[in-house]
């Protein structure tokens, strides 16, 4: 830990999650303005198993975060390195909880899975503090035929700012399945970059959310196809209620030489209130001929015919709304580790249950 005893800055106007290919400036979607507050006294990262964990570590020089400022904040905090040896299967849970005297967190995590290694990783970020700032940066390196499954869960942390920045590099036949449940915080900034460097590598980015109140989500996913016959999926689904807002920036970039590669990206939002705001920017870039890329987005209020049908079967309006939302996100919940699925489902129901408001 590098001594974050107090706030180093109060508020700073910065820009986060800049698009890799810039569009018209008047659209105001190339990046997002942000009032950034530097994390103060840092909570601790708790590891369920420390056999493969050591303190210290440095991110790659070309690691890109949501912004230079947010990345610098993470790098000034704690640092840990996790190395899973060749032909080893492991499970690990990392828990970070905001505490009364240490409400914030700043830190870097470096993961290396050697050849044929497998890791089931669970992240838990939580806390009851009304105001916290979390800035994390994680680097995942998967060697040949390595497999990484990640379940990432944010809950609680009302009126807090969460900056999650990550980068993954995959070798030949490597597989990464990253599933996020973005349920906590008031302002959530996600910046994820994946590089399918190896042939036959596969990366799947899945995120579900239930945003309520004044919650704001700024989600950035970018995957580069470099190796031949690589496969990528970006799948984001969720619901917005009250005055919540979300912006999705997704990019699949097919680089020259990645022949036979396939990529799909989709962003789907249900707006439970006319006061919510949703912006979706799915982007395909390509310099290779022999590839297949698909993108889609959908946003809108509930289909009243479906709601009417459910209500004629005895469900209340609130229950009918929740059934439709759960039908959308349940396949994503089922991709999470079994140990957190019921917790995620209960939190989604709590946040979207209008009867409690």
Count of alpha/pi helices: 4
Could you say which overall geometry the principal axes of the C-alpha atoms support? globular
Q: What is the total domain count?
A: 1
Strand order, biggest sheet?
3-6-8-10-12-14-16-18-20
- The low-pLDDT segments are 1-9
As a percent range, the share of strand residues is over 45%
Look at the structure and give the mean pLDDT. 93
Number of strands: 20
SS-derived structural category: mainly beta
Order of helices and strands: EEEEHEEEEEEEEEEEEEEEEHHH
Largest sheet: 9 strands, mixed
Helix content: 10-25%
**What value does the Rg take, in angstroms?**
20 Å
N-to-C CA distance: 41 Å
Overview of the molecule:
Residues 110-327 form the SUF system FeS cluster assembly SufBD core domain. The protein has 357 residues and is mainly β. It has one domain. Helices cover 13% and strands 46% of the residues. The chain has helices at residues 68-75, 304-312, 317-333, 341-352, and strands at residues 12-16, 32-36, 45-47, 53-55, 78-84, 89-97, 105-113, 118-126, 133-142, 147-154, 161-170, 175-182, 187-196, 202-211, 216-225, 231-240, 245-254, 262-271, 277-286, 292-300. α3 runs antiparallel to α4 (341-352).
What's the topology here?
Elements: E1 12-16, E2 32-36, E3 45-47, E4 53-55, H1 68-75, E5 78-84, E6 89-97, E7 105-113, E8 118-126, E9 133-142, E10 147-154, E11 161-170, E12 175-182, E13 187-196, E14 202-211, E15 216-225, E16 231-240, E17 245-254, E18 262-271, E19 277-286, E20 292-300, H2 304-312, H3 317-333, H4 341-352
Helix pairs in contact: 2-3, 3-4
């Amino acid at each position: 830990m590098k001594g974050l005893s107090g706030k180093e800055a109060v508020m700073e106007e910065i820009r986060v999650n800049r698009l890799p290919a810039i569009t018209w400036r008047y659209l105001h979607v190339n990046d997002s303005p942000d009032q950034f507050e530097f994390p103060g006294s840092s909570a601790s990262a708790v590891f369920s198993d420390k056999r493969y964990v050591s303190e210290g570590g440095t991110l790659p020089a070309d690691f890109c975060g949501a912004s230079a400022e947010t990345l610098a904040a993470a790098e000034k905090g704690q640092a840990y390195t996790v190395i899973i040896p060749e032909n080893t299967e492991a499970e690990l849970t990392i828990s970070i909880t905001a505490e009364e005297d240490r409400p914030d967190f700043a830190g870097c995590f470096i993961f290396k899975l050697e050849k044929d290694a497998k890791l089931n990783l669970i992240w838990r970020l939580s806390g009851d503090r009304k105001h916290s700032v979390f800035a994390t940066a994680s680097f995942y390196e998967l060697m040949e035929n390595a497999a990484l499954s990640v379940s990432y869960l944010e809950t609680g942390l009302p009126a807090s700012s969460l900056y999650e920045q990550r980068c993954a590099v995959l070798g030949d036949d490597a597989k990464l399945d990253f599933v996020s449940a973005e349920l906590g915080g008031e302002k959530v900034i996600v910046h994820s970059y994946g590089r399918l460097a190896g042939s036959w590598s596969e990366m799947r980015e899945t995120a579900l959310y239930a945003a309520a109140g004044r919650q704001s989500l700024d989600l950035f996913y970018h995957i580069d196809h470099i190796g031949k016959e690589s496969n990528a999926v970006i799948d984001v689904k969720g619901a917005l209620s009250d005055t919540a807002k979300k912006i999705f920036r997704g990019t699949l970039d097919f680089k020259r030489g990645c022949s036979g590669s396939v990529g799909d990206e989709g962003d789907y939002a249900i707006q439970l209130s006319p006061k919510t705001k949703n912006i979706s920017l799915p982007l395909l870039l390509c310099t290779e001929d022999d590839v297949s890329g698909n993108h889609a987005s959908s946003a809108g209020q509930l289909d009243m015919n479906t709601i009417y049908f459910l209500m004629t079967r005895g469900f209340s309006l609130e229950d009918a709304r929740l059934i439709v939302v759960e039908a959308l996100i349940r396949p994503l919940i089922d991709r999470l580790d079994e140990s957190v699925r019921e917790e995620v489902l209960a939190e989604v129901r709590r946040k979207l249950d209008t009867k409690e408001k």
